[in-house]
């Protein structure tokens, strides 16, 4: 935010919503300066402050400004504690940092994020991204007298999710393609492949990948099934590619 912005009238709620949509679109296109400008303006409107800060946190994480990303995520949570995107932003900021207790903090934020309801297609996309980041970790955790032990490993599925967070869907698709098509993570890889194709505007191919994922993950997705079905409904809109 520039010094002149302090003297400008904040955008109204409708204009601010448009700025949030513009900002997050530019974010995933890696048009960083344009995304930052739109989100900075939207953050000045009380109705969109939390969401704008959440996406600005993801932007700062993309720029490797982890302290700034965590600060914006915490501010977004303070402004709207039940906003899924705010908790998601905090999770990825923590994972991108180097603090020794980052995994413990991440798991706490993961629990809070699970209680939040996704409000739009973009939030459902991030819900599935959260699944890709953590599903294998949760499945491979070990339990002993001290409790459950987990470790965050950069498997192909996780690397694909990180590529999506970096705004590189083409590279994400390559990571998901490297997963064993008959292994335990095949369904997750198909979800990720569909997400990478969706980010590239290939809705028909994304739909095919997600339908395959539905079969592969039958009975395994829980609440994440709702997000997958929401994205499927989006790409099944008449007139889509």
Please characterize this protein's 3D structure.
The protein is mostly helical. 66% of the residues lie in helices and 2% in strands. It is built from twelve helices and two strands; from the N terminus they run αααααααββααααα. The protein has helices spanning 13-28, 32-42, 49-62, 66-79, 84-96, 102-114, 121-139, 156-165, 169-177, 186-199, 203-216, 224-235, and strands at 142-144, 147-149. The protein has a two-stranded antiparallel ribbon. It starts with 12 loop residues before the first helix and ends in a 6-residue tail after the last helix. Mean pLDDT is 87; it is low at 141-149.
**Rg:** 18 Å
Structural class category: mainly alpha
Coarse shape:
globular
Assess the beta-strand content as a share of residues: under 5%
Q: What does the average pLDDT come to?
A: 87
SSE string, helices as H and strands as E = HHHHHHHEEHHHHH
Helicity range of the residues?
55-70%
Number of DSSP strands?
Answer: 2
> Biggest β-sheet, characterized?
2 strands, antiparallel
Q: Separation of termini?
A: 38 Å
Spans of at least 5 consecutive residues with low confidence: 141-149
Instruction: Give, in spatial order, the strands making up the sheet with the most strands.
Output: 1-2
Number of helices: 12
Quaternary arrangement of the chains shown?
A: single chain
């Amino acid at each position: 935010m520039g010094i002149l912005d302090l003297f400008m009238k904040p955008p109204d709620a409708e204009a601010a919503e448009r700025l949030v949509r513009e900002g997050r679109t530019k974010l995933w296109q890696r048009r960083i300066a344009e995304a930052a400008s739109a989100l900075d303006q939207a953050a000045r409107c009380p109705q969109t402050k939390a969401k704008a800060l959440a996406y600005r946190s993801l932007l700062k994480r993309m720029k490797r400004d982890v302290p700034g990303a965590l600060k914006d995520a915490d501010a977004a949570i303070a402004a709207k504690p039940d906003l899924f995107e705010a908790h998601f932003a905090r999770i990825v900021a923590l994972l991108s940092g180097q603090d020794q207790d980052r995994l413990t903090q991440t798991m706490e934020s993961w629990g809070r994020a699970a209680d939040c309801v996704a409000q739009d297609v973009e939030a459902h996309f991030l819900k599935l991204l959260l699944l890709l980041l953590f599903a294998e970790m949760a499945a491979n955790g070990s339990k002993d007298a001290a409790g459950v032990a987990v470790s965050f490993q950069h498997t192909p599925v996780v690397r694909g999710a990180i590529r999506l967070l970096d705004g590189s869907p083409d590279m994400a698709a390559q990571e998901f393609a490297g997963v064993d098509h008959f292994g335990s993570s095949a369904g997750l890889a198909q979800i990720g492949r569909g997400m990478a194709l969706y980010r590239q505007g290939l809705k028909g191919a994304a739909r095919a990948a997600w339908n395959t994922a539905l079969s592969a993950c039958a009975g395994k997705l829980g609440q994440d099934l709702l997000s997958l079905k929401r994205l499927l409904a989006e790409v099944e809109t008449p007139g889509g590619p």
